[in-house]
Amino acid sequence: MTSNSLDDTVDDAADDTADDAVDEETVSVTTSEEERPPAFRTTSGRERGYHRAAVDTFLAAARESFESESGLTAAEVRIASFPLVREGYIVGDVDAALGRIEDAFAARIREQAVRSGGAEEWVVEARTQAQEILDHLARPRRRKFARTGFLTFGYRIDEVDHVAARIVRYLRDGEDLTVEQLRSAAFRMQRGGYREEQVDALLDAAIDVILAVR
Questions:
Q1: What is the pLDDT of residues 44-97, one digit of tens each?
Q2: DSSP 2
Q3: Which residues fall within 8 angstroms of residue 194, CB to CB, at 6 or more apart?
């Protein structure tokens, strides 16, 4: 790996996205664990972190995809997951870097779309997606998503509805809401709660809209 930390190279990637190019240091990893220091801080004691080799492999794939403009997408970066092990990478550090990588992918896609179809077409598409989200969230309180069975756990309904209301206020009224806030949204579980896959899909769609217009 280069002398920069992965956080630094990902910051560079986000900055360079406006030029639709990433230098050779972006999300760079090497195959030899012995020849480089860890890309991130690592956990100690009984604390668990992300499996280092799994993270390094994913970041290498992300770098290759970004440079070749094929393969991974921003959405796939968003849902990346890794085994938890002792002496792994600190979860928060990796998640923050993945967020910046996702931003870089999304910004490149936006710029390519604007060049090919024009800014107006891109805005219309983003507005259409935003309206679809608003239409979904117009459903009555506590009935915005399908529910699990009475004996099955799902996301806690009142917590999801709270986040849903914030998304509505962002899309309808322009109230502040960031990608980072949606990425970090976490819900407790309850029997008969909202189905996780439906909630997660809508959060992903809302993130896509924010990335498209910011």
A1: 999 999 999 999 999 999 999 998 887 788 888 988 999 999 999 999 999 999
A2: -
A3: 144, 145, 146, 147, 148, 154, 155, 156, 157, 160
Long-range pairs for 67-73: beta carbons < 8 A, 24 or more residues apart = 67/22, 67/26, 69/108, 72/105, 73/105, 73/109
- The two three-digit tokens of residue 30, written as one number: 């090497």
Q: In b/e form, how buried is each residue of 149-184, taking b as 16+ CB within 10 angstroms?
A: eeeeebbebebbbebbebbbebbeeeeebebeebbe
Q: What is the number of alpha carbons within 13 Å of residue 113 lying toward its C-beta?
A: 16
DSSP H or E run through 59: helix 52-68
Rounded to two decimals, the pTM is 0.69
